[in-house]
C-alpha cells in the first residue's frame, strides 16, 4: 500500500493570488468581469460616502460641531484626501493586500499567516496577536450589521426632499429593500456583481462629473491637495480638528472590505478599480463639494445634491438610492469571508457554505450568516429609525479593525519579511499613530452611539473565543474516550472483541489518526460486527484555500499493508466544499494485491456528541451554556461532507463540558 504524500506547500503569502481565469482565451473577459464585479460588490460602501460625509462633519447638531469657515473647509478636504491616500491607497492597496493566503484576504487570513509563522519562536506574541485579530474580525462583523441599516435608511430618507408626506413610508420601504437584498444573496457575488457593477460604473462617473462641475466654479479648492492644509488644520486647530476626525472616518469606512473581499475577486481587479476609477471619482467629488461650500457656507446641508443642476436632482436621488443599497453589499460579502474562515480555523461552528462560482473559488454564500445579518439589520432599523441616530455609531468598528490590521501587518512584516526596525518605527509608527488618533477621536462618540459596534463586536468575540475553548475541552474528553487508534486496531487483529466479518466497506469518520472513532468502537463492542474493508477517515482542513488532488490523500496502513484496516487522511482547503466520497476515490491500494476500495455501496459512520454542562471547572458556567447554545447552529455533518444519506449511520454519545 502506498501513501500519497507531498511536501509542505510553499509559503503562499508572497505568491500572486489567483484572478479566477480558467483559460488563456477567456482571461481578458474574466478579468473585465472581475473588475466590474469588484466595483459592484466591493466599493459600494466607500463609494457612497460623499453623500453624507461632509454634511456630517459640518453638522451643527453634532455634539462636537466643526465651524464652517474657509480654513476649516480647506483643512477638512485636505485631511480627507490624505487619509484616502495613506490609509486606503498606500496601506491597504499598496501594502496589506500583498499579504494573502493563496488569494484569500481579510483579517482572518492575516491571523492564519501569523499563526503559521509564529510557531517555534514568538509563540506567545503570536497567540496574543491572533486573539487581537479575532477581536478585529468581530468588530468587522459588527460593522456588517450597521452598514446595511444606515445605507438603506439614508437612501430611502431621500424621498423627503421630493415629498415630505412620504416620510411615513420610510421604514416599511426600508424593510422591503433589506429583505430583498438579503434574499438575493443566494445568487452569489458573481451574479450580484454583474447587476451592481454597471450601476456603480455609472455612479462613479456621475461622482466625477458632479465634482468637476463644482471645481470649475471655484478652482481655488485644488489648493487643498497640499498636505500643509491638513497639517495646519490638525495642529493649528487641534481642538476642532480632533473631533472632526471621527466624522472623516466616514470617508474610508469601506477600506477593510477591500481586503476582506479579496478572495471574491482577486487583488489586481480590486486594486485597479480603486486606482483608476473609485479614488479619482471620490477625490473629484469631495473637492467639488468643498468648492461649493466655499462659495456659500449655507450649501453644507445637502452639498452633494446641490452639485447637480435642479433638473437632474430627482434622477440623482434615484441613482443615489440604488448606490446606497449596493453599499450594503461590500460588508455582507466581507462578512461571508470572515465567518467562513473563522469556522474553518475553529473559532466558529461548522457552517454550511455554498460556493457560488465555478470560475472563482472565493465567491461564497453562507446562509446562516446571511439570515443573522438580515435579522440584526432589521432590528437596528426598527430600534433607531433614522440614519442620523445611527451616524454616531458608524465608523467605530471600522477604525478599530483598521488599527488591529495595522498592528498585525507590522508584526508580520518584521517576522516574515525581516523589515528593518527603523523602517517599522518610522513609516509603520507614523501610520499606526495616525490610525490610533482616528480611533481616539471616534471614542469620543461612545456615549452618543459608538457603544453599539463595540457591544456587537465584544459579543461576537466572546462567542468565538468561547467556541474555541469549548472545542479544546470536548476534543480532550473525546480523545480520552476514544483511546489510541493503533492499540484498538491491534486488538481487532487479535479478535478482541470477537466480531463477525460482513462484506462491504465501512468508513468511520474520526478526528485524527491517533484515536479510534466512537462509532467504530460501538460497532465492534455493541454490534460485534466488522466490515471486510474498514476505513478510518479523518478530514483535515488546511490553512490554505484549496488543496490539489495529488496532495489530498494520505494513506496509513497502520502497520500492516496486508490488513483490511487502513487510515485515510483527506485534506481540504478552507475555501473548498468537502466531498468525502469523491476524495476516497483517489485512494490507491497498489500493494494490496490490486484491491481497491469498494465505494459503490460503502456505509459511512458518524459520531455525534450531545453536550451537557458539567461540574468540571473547564469554563465559567455561563460560557458552558453559551458554548452548548452555539453548538446548535453547527451544520449537518453528512451534508457538510457530501455523504449519501441512505448509507450514513449516526452514533451518538454524551460529553460534559
TrEMBL record:
Compartment list: Cell membrane; Membrane
One Pfam family linked to the record:
K_trans_C
Which topology term describes how it sits in the membrane? Answer: Multi-pass membrane protein
What domain of life does the UniProt record list for this protein's source? Answer: Bacteria
TM region(s), chain numbering: 32-53, 73-95, 125-146, 166-184, 196-215, 235-260, 272-294, 360-384, 390-413, 422-440, 446-467
User: Quick check: keyword Transport in the entry?
Assistant: yes
**Ranges for region Disordered:** 1-25
Keyword Transport assigned to the entry: answer is: yes
This chain's function reads:
Transport of potassium into the cell. Likely operates as a K(+):H(+) symporter.
User: What family does this belong to?
Assistant: Belongs to the HAK/KUP transporter (TC 2.A.72) family.
Entry protein name:
Probable potassium transport system protein Kup
Native organism: Glycomyces lechevalierae
The gene it comes from is: kup
